[in-house]
Specification:
single chain, disordered N terminus, globular, D-amino Acid Aminotransferase, Chain A, domain 1, D-amino Acid Aminotransferase, Chain A, domain 2
Length: 348
């Protein structure tokens, strides 16, 4: 007699093969049947996470989540030839939309993608989209793609670039609890790709997954020269023992809009005698880990205190007072900053 375990495994494998052979793929006979199937997916959702989308392929704003799709032959999908950016919606205002749009268009230029619209038209589309969404708090994310056309490497067969945008209903608040960070073992992107906000985010994905597996919020990249770079979706900042705020140089990393705004606002704490200085320069790992305070800086945070890095406490291992004062500066700017930073959305 044969081994019962082997017999059982063989029987199971045989059943799987038989089931696979019996499997039949449904063929949708009409677009209405397909749309009905797509609507089934959203029928049980109490609150739609994506209240509105814009597509230049459709030529307008879509409110039906079942229709929020992009073509499979879009080069952003199968070749990663696309760039994106994000703006915050807070209390019915768009925060720093213009500086994000400027970075968006710089990224597009580096990626050799021409926008189908001028900056002012893109701005108008995004404001109208936010208004149509009726979302008062969340994020506005937008992409510029080489466009649909074929499945080749070159985008020369794409008739025109494509612009997409989605409003994401997202809850966020000022971060006051400290988190842990780790050093990433995933190779960081070379400067050409790191300095443009493009959709090739696999290194970022693997980096943050590595951090989560280690019980940390995010990982931090260190470049080949031993200088601090950035996190997978955030910048990092440090307060030295001498009370100087340092944000790593943007030469080889993404020029974070929130980090730049922090550099503009932080001198207020210098004027108050709380900080000794504010600078944007390279920092070694040894210098960084000897800091009194450390933080992540990003749009939806806007400042997130870091209390430990690679299981080593930063400072006294508690949320720093200066970190929270910097957080207050940015949060107040988001809530009640000048008109140059905040655009009132014309909801109807």
């Amino acid at each position: 007699m044969g081994n019962p375990t082997e017999s059982s495994a063989s029987s199971k494998k045989s059943t799987e093969v038989e089931n696979d052979a019996d499997f039949r793929v449904h063929v949708f006979s009409s677009s209405s049947e397909l749309l009905e199937k797509l609507h089934e997916r959203w029928s049980s959702v109490e609150k739609l996470p994506y209240p509105a989308m814009y597509s230049s392929i459709y030529g307008g704003i879509i409110l039906d989540p079942a229709m929020m799709v992009i073509p499979i032959d879009d080069h952003m999908v199968h070749r990663g030839h696309g760039v994106f950016d994000t703006a915050i919606i807070l209390n019915g205002y768009l925060y720093e939309l213009d500086v994000h749009l400027d970075r968006f268009l710089r990224s597009a230029s580096k990626a050799k993608i021409s926008s189908p619209f001028s900056k002012s038209t893109l701005r108008s589309i995004l404001i109208q989209l936010t208004a149509a969404s009726k979302c008062k708090k969340g994020t506005l994310r937008y992409w510029l793609s080489a466009g649909p056309g074929d499945f080749l490497l070159s985008s020369s067969g794409c008739p025109t670039s494509a612009f997409y945008a989605v409003v994401i209903d997202q809850e966020f608040s000022q971060c006051k609890e400290g988190v842990k960070a780790v050093t990433s073992s995933v190779p960081m992107k070379p400067p050409l790709f790191a300095t443009m906000k493009n959709v090739n985010y696999l290194p970022n994905v693997l980096s943050i997954m590595e951090a989560e597996e280690k019980g940390a919020f995010a990982a931090i990249w260190v470049d080949e020269a031993g200088y601090i770079a950035e996190g997978p979706h955030v910048n990092v900042a440090f307060i030295t023992q001498e009370k100087e705020l340092i944000i790593p140089s943007f030469d080889n990393i993404l020029r974070g809009c929130t980090a730049k705004r922090l550099l503009e606002l932080a001198p207020k704490l210098v004027d108050q005698g709380l900080l000794k200085g504010v600078t944007n320069k390279n920092l070694t790992v040894e210098e960084a880990k000897a800091s009194a305070e450390m933080m992540f800086v990003g749009s939806t945070l806007p400042v997130l205190p870091i209390i430990a890095w690679d299981d080593q406490p930063i400072g006294d291992g508690r949320v720093g007072e200066l970190t929270m004062k910097l957080s207050d500066l940015l949060w107040d700017d988001m809530v009640a900053g000048p008109d140059t930073q905040r655009i009132a959305v014309p909801y109807v």
